[in-house]
UniProtKB/TrEMBL annotation, chain A:
Name of the protein: MMS19 nucleotide excision repair protein
Subcellular location(s) per record: Nucleus
Organism listed in the record: Neohortaea acidophila
Transmembrane segments: none
Principal localisation: nucleus
Keywords carried by this UniProt record: DNA damage, DNA repair, Nucleus, Repeat
From TrEMBL, chain B:
MIP18 family-like domain: residues covered: 65-147
Name this polypeptide is given: MIP18 family-like domain-containing protein
Residue stretches of biased makeup (Acidic residues): 54-63
Region Disordered, annotated ranges: 1-63
InterPro entries given in the database record: FSCA_dom_sf (IPR034904), MIP18 (IPR039796), MIP18-like (IPR002744)
Length: 1021, 191
């Protein structure tokens, strides 16, 4: 049997097998076992079968498959030419297997480039004989043909263009070929094929045909099927279609009227597409073309801006206007005409400012002016004089505010332009600068303080004026900075009328644009305002807080911290109050924490800050603590400043510091009696200092002796208070960062931490229990001693079954956020520690809750511990176990323990948001428990089978419960929740009268959601 | 292009910063959170009951005019996508809460006076209805709600006031589906 016979047998049964046969034929051709002529001859009988069209198509498919698989260089140029003539010749008489013919031609083309004539013949044959493609029902038939044209128009543009040039009828036929295509994959290609003539050929006479051919698809409403293997999105089609519409100015006569017509559509999506297409047209068409349509475009776009339907539509319209202005920027005449209309209409809206339309006018002026300096120049010339005349002649403060808002928009455009090109000509704008300055300063300085919006507008305007380089003289700049500083320093309005926050922000922006003026004027004014030693009534916080915020700007950072340092020195010298000194220290800490200090080339904060700021502070603290007890508070602030500068420094620098630093570990000579209070005072500094050091900087012997000291201090500590807590944080740092995991157990024992004993005695003291939890926490986070950690964790869980032990409440501490055990402090933080803790505790706790039903106390212990662990875990970690977690969490809501309830409610909130189906079967009990959690008075729980009294709920629990309850009707199926509507709405009435405003607000929201159920019911009827 | 057939196509809009809000009217005696407070976070002790303690439960925050304002100022106008607060239809000064008239009564009265954007605004009744419905839903039952048109601001004030004061008529209006729909759209913007 010949290959073609075998192929025809297989092709309907096994596509792959048929393909293999074709591949084999290709191999035979290469090996000369088969001659091309014989192959063609063997086809004759089938390819010309008069009675069976399917056989003819399949024969062409075989030929295409062979050609696609024949190795290159097997067929000579002569043979390839013969083959393409053969295929094209067939098409003239028989269109069966058109797609395969196209595939065969594509395969031939891939083996060797066609000459111009062949390309033309191929194109002509299809255009003349296969027209229109929509007659072929198979997408693959059309797709292959379209692919062929895609190749023709990417590689053989000149020959195809010649076809068009030689024959005026060609284009119409060419366009008709693709008419009516609906398949998205085909359309993607068709759009890109048609874009070639649109962009490159002279198609003036065929503009309408070509335009209609693509615009018929506008707007694209294609929704890709969910399992679309080709991944074509509506956006892909929209993008290509838009490129076609914008391809040539010849379309303008059709496209612009059509687009403007569709802009009146009631569909927001259509409008969105129209506006994007208009933008593309403005960019793509010639300035002259756009000029012809500038009036209708302006009218339509203006309407979208003045009558905002959706913000993004107005935004897109503004952008389109800006693009038009940019298009005309180089042509005086066009620009004058276009802007003339805009300026005239905007000026009309100035008259009755402030209105919705004057606001819109401001947006328009901003968008247009921002498009090019020449445009801005004309806007400034056309609008500003009028604006200030109106402003100066109006007594209405609201009107002045409205006008200044528009001025701000124009100024903002200039800020953008000068930022992009600092040399932008600002002469015209400058002509109004003095007037603008006067108007804004007057509003800030002399308007009644209750005119908040006017003053805020003016503050914003002042910041803009300063942001435009070369606009103001130095004196004027000083005036602005002085005005801002004055508001910040001297206005003490509380409540309505307070514009300090915005002024502080504006001064911060000015520090960026004019750092010198801030250094020359604002900073000295701040310093003059801050006394060295304030008397008891002086409220220094507002001034200091504002001053510290200037540190956000790097150009003034150094000045800010240096002045703070000097002021602190003076305050100490003058024996200023402790609270003032503390505030100055906090301001410094703020600057280093949230400000922008200078960094070295590696991005590390400059080490000289340490020597300049941290070291003197430590020295002062050391001296003070040697004579005065209870300096912990200062020590903590100094410690944090030291920590933040020191921790990113390299080993070398830290080594140097560590070697010199040991002086502060003991009180200064002559104060031996102060030893114990001294050490207690500087303990926080010690903690933050060791937190900053890299592990290799400290010797193991030093760590061991520190561990011993701290452990014995902890054991001797009687009360479970802040002092113990500080020691324990220090211990957890040392255990996590400095102890080698390999020698962990011996080191801990050498230091006196015997976990086995600590965990095995149920009558442990609070101190020893705390010590055990601390150690375990350090190890959990580190994750390097898994076996030991697991043993201890299980010992801890076992203690929960002892009804007399009260360790359940401590479980939240295990995973609680910790600002010491973090990577920045060079601690070992395992990425998996939360997951690991979850795996080792949560399943056990859930099981224990189920088994412990006999003893309520034991059950409660486990529930509280569970909630304490879950509190810190991300929702994604809980997700796989949620169905097991829901029952115990529901029981947690019955506990008289607000600390345990809050995490449970947070989880229910997430479950209701993401997987409501998980709680659907518990709807009744969830609603009852949530309602019980909203009450302030102790309520009796009426869950069947058990009756217990719930303690009063705190405000945050009540609010969270209401938030959850709000989600119930939204997230659960209607029929599940409707039966509870009456009960819930009635109960919520009491929440509307809750003592806390925040809870009442939640209750209102919640009640609205439940009342909403009713409406749907009516709609359904 | 769409023809403007609204009663007042270009109303004056109040700037949000001029609208009364709780943050701005906070009493000077309330200690504001200082900028530096966050620098020294308070570390909760291992066993800590203070973080959720109920000692803040004692001082009750009474429902005041600002709270009523917040409930209704976010209602949107039926003809503009703007809130009644920003249009000046509702102002803080036109909300009054009267304490119970006798010590034995628990009933307080909330009076809200509306200022229509134009004196001929045909939607005044609907706006009044929206405000009334919102307050009935959001205030505890010990409040009597009285919504009226401010004197001298509307040509139809008397008629509208009569309708709004009539319980039966309000109830009947809320049976009217198209009216319910309008009111719901207005209230949709309320939190």
């Amino acid at each position: 049997m010949s290959d073609i016979q075998l192929y025809l047998l297989e092709v309907d049964k096994d596509k792959q097998e048929a393909k293999n046969i074709a591949v084999q034929s290709g191999v035979k051709l290469r090996n000369r076992q088969l001659k091309l002529i014989d192959l063609i001859t063997s086809l004759q009988e089938y390819i010309n079968d008069k009675d069976d069209a399917a056989i003819r198509a399949k024969s062409v498919a075989y030929l295409a498959d062979v050609l696609e698989n024949v190795p290159s260089k097997v067929l000579s140029g002569q043979e390839r030419r013969l083959l393409s003539d053969f295929i094209l010749g067939r098409i003239e008489g028989d269109l069966e297997g058109i797609g395969h013919s196209a595939r065969a031609l594509i395969a031939l083309e891939a083996q060797g480039k066609w000459d111009a004539e062949t390309a033309k013949t191929v194109a002509r044959t299809f255009v003349d004989y296969a027209n229109p493609l929509k007659q072929f029902k198979l997408q693959t038939d059309r797709y292959a043909t379209i692919q062929l044209f895609d190749i023709l128009l990417s590689k053989y543009r000149t020959p195809l263009k010649e076809l068009h040039d030689a024959d005026p009828e060609f284009m119409a036929a060419f366009v008709a070929l693709f008419e009516g295509e609906k398949d998205p994959r085909n359309l993607m290609l068709v759009f890109s094929i048609l874009q070639v003539p649109m962009t490159e050929w002279d198609i003036h006479a065929h503009a309408q045909d070509l335009f209609d051919a693509v615009f018929n698809y506008f707007p694209v409403t294609f929704k890709p099927p969910p399992d679309d293997p080709y991944g074509i999105t509506a956006q892909d089609l929209k993008d290509r279609l838009r490129d076609c519409i914008a391809a040539t100015s010849d379309f303008a006569a059709f496209s612009i009227p059509a687009l403007l017509d569709k802009l009146d559509s009631s569909s927001m999506n259509t409008k969105r597409d129209v506006l994007q297409a208009i933008q593309a047209c403005v960019v793509g068409y010639t300035p002259n073309t756009i000029n012809q349509y500038s009036v209708p475009l302006w009218d339509a776009l203006k309407f979208e801006i003045l009558n905002v339907q959706e913000n993004d539509l107005a935004e897109a319209s503004l952008q389109a206007l800006a693009l038009i202005a940019a298009k005309f920027a180089e042509n005086e005449g066009r620009l004058n005409t276009f802007l003339g209309t805009i300026i005239k209409e905007c000026n009309e809206h100035l008259e009755d400012a402030p209105t919705k339309q004057s606001q819109a006018a401001g947006l328009i002026l901003h968008a247009v002016a921002g498009s090019a300096p020449t445009v801005a120049d004309k806007i400034a010339k056309g609008v500003l004089p009028k604006l200030f005349t109106l402003h100066n002649s109006s007594e209405s403060l609201a009107k002045r505010r409205g006008l200044l808002e528009i001025f701000n928009e124009i100024a903002k455009a200039y800020v953008g332009l000068t930022l992009a090109a600092p040399s932008t000509n600002i002469d015209t704008f400058q002509e109004s600068a003095a007037e603008a300055l006067q108007a804004t300063l007057r509003a800030v300085q002399r308007a009644p303080k209750s005119e908040v919006s006017l003053r805020l507008t003016a503050v914003e305007g002042l910041a803009f004026l300063l942001a435009i380089p070369r606009l103001l003289t130095q004196d004027q700049t000083y005036q602005v900075v002085d005005a801002m500083t004055d508001v910040i320093l001297h206005e003490t309005i509380q409540g309505h009328g307070d514009i300090r926050p915005q002024s502080i922000q504006a001064l911060g922006e000015m520090a960026h644009t004019c750092p010198a003026a801030i250094r020359d004027r604002a900073i000295p004014a701040f310093m003059a305002e801050l006394p060295d030693a304030p008397d008891g009534n002086y409220a220094f916080s507002p001034v200091l807080e504002a001053f510290a915020q200037l540190s956000a700007e790097q150009q003034v950072f150094d000045t800010v911290v240096r002045r703070l340092k000097n002021k602190l020195g003076a305050a100490k010298h003058q024996n200023a109050s402790a609270s003032y000194q503390r505030a100055l220290l906090l301001a410094t800490l703020y600057a280093f924490t949230y400000g922008t200090p200078v960094r070295d080339e590696d991005g590390v904060i400059k080490s000289s800050y340490y020597t300049e700021y941290a070291e003197p502070l430590i020295r002062d603290l050391h001296e003070a603590a040697s004579v005065t007890p209870n300096m912990q508070d200062t020590a903590e602030i100094v410690g944090r400043i030291c920590n933040i500068i020191l921790r990113p420094q390299g080993v070398h620098f830290q080594n140097t510091i560590h070697n010199q630093h040991m002086f502060w570990t003991a009180p200064t000579e002559g104060h031996a009696d102060m030893a114990a209070p001294y050490l207690e005072s500087i303990a926080p500094l010690s903690l933050y200092y060791y937190a900053a050091l890299r592990p290799e900087v400290v010797e193991p012997t030093e760590i061991l002796s520190l561990l011993k000291t701290l452990t014995s201090e902890a054991t001797n500590e009687k009360s479970d208070g802040p002092r113990l807590h500080l020691i324990l944080r220090h211990l957890s740092l040392l255990i996590n960062k400095y102890i080698n995991p390999k020698t962990l157990q011996p080191t801990l024992e050498a230091a006196g931490i015997k976990l086995d004993t600590l965990l095995s005695s149920p009558t442990a003291t609070p101190t020893s229990t705390s010590l055990a939890f601390t150690t375990l926490k350090a190890l959990l986070i580190q994750g390097r001693s898994p076996a030991l950690t697991t043993t201890y964790l299980q010992a801890l869980l076992a203690l929960l079954s002892d009804p007399t032990a009260s360790i359940a409440q401590r479980f939240p501490a295990l995973l609680a956020e910790d600002d010491i055990l973090i990577k920045e402090n060079h601690c070992l933080v395992s990425g998996l520690y939360k997951q690991r803790t979850f795996n080792q505790t949560v399943p056990l706790l859930i099981a224990a809750v189920q088994q412990a039903s006999s003893d309520p106390q034991i059950k409660q212990n486990h529930l509280i511990a569970l909630s304490g662990i879950l509190k810190w875990l991300p929702y994604s970690m809980l997700q796989p176990s949620l169905s097991a977690l829901v029952p115990p969490l529901l029981q947690t809501l019955d506990l008289p323990a607000p600390d345990a309830k809050a995490p449970a409610l947070t989880i229910f909130e997430s479950v209701l948001m993401h997987e409501p189906s998980l709680v659907a079967e518990h709807t009744a009990s969830l609603i009852t428990r949530l309602l019980n959690s909203t009450t302030t008075t102790a309520a009796t729980n009426t869950t069947p089978g058990q009756t217990s009294v719930t303690a009063a709920n705190v405000a945050s629990v009540r609010a969270k419960a209401l938030q959850c309850l709000t989600l119930v009707p939204r997230q659960l199926k209607r029929e599940t929740v409707v039966p509870y509507r009456r009960q819930v709405v009635k109960k919520l009435m009491f929440c509307l009268d809750d003592g806390k405003r925040e809870v009442r607000a939640e209750a209102v929201r919640c009640r609205k959601a439940w009342l909403g159920l009713d409406e749907e019911e009516e709609d359904d009827d | 292009m769409e023809v403007d057939n609204k009663d007042n196509a270009n109303p004056t809009i109040l700037n949000p910063s001029d609208l009364p809000s709780r943050r701005q009217t906070k009493l000077a005696t309330d200690k504001p959170a200082g900028l530096f407070d966050s620098l020294l976070p308070v570390h909760p002790l291992p066993v800590d009951h203070s973080s959720l303690s109920s000692d803040d439960e004692e001082d009750r925050e009474e429902i005041d005019e600002q709270e009523v304002y917040d409930l209704i100022s976010s209602i949107s106008d039926p003809e503009h996508p703007l809130s009644l607060g920003s249009l000046g239809v509702i102002t803080l000064g036109d909300i009054a809460i009267a304490a119970p008239s006798s010590p034995r009564s628990r009933i307080s009265t909330v009076t809200v006076l509306l200022t229509p954007t134009t004196s001929a605004c045909s939607l005044t009744t609907v706006i009044g209805l929206g405000v009334k419905v919102r307050l009935l839903q959001a205030l505890p039952p010990r409040f009597r709600v009285d919504v009226r048109i401010k004197e001298g601001t509307s040509q139809t004030a008397d008629e509208v006031n009569k309708q709004l004061a009539d319980k039966e008529r309000v109830a009947a209006a809320m049976e009217n589906r198209s009216l319910v729909q309008v009111v719901n759209t207005m209230l949709a913007t309320c939190e």
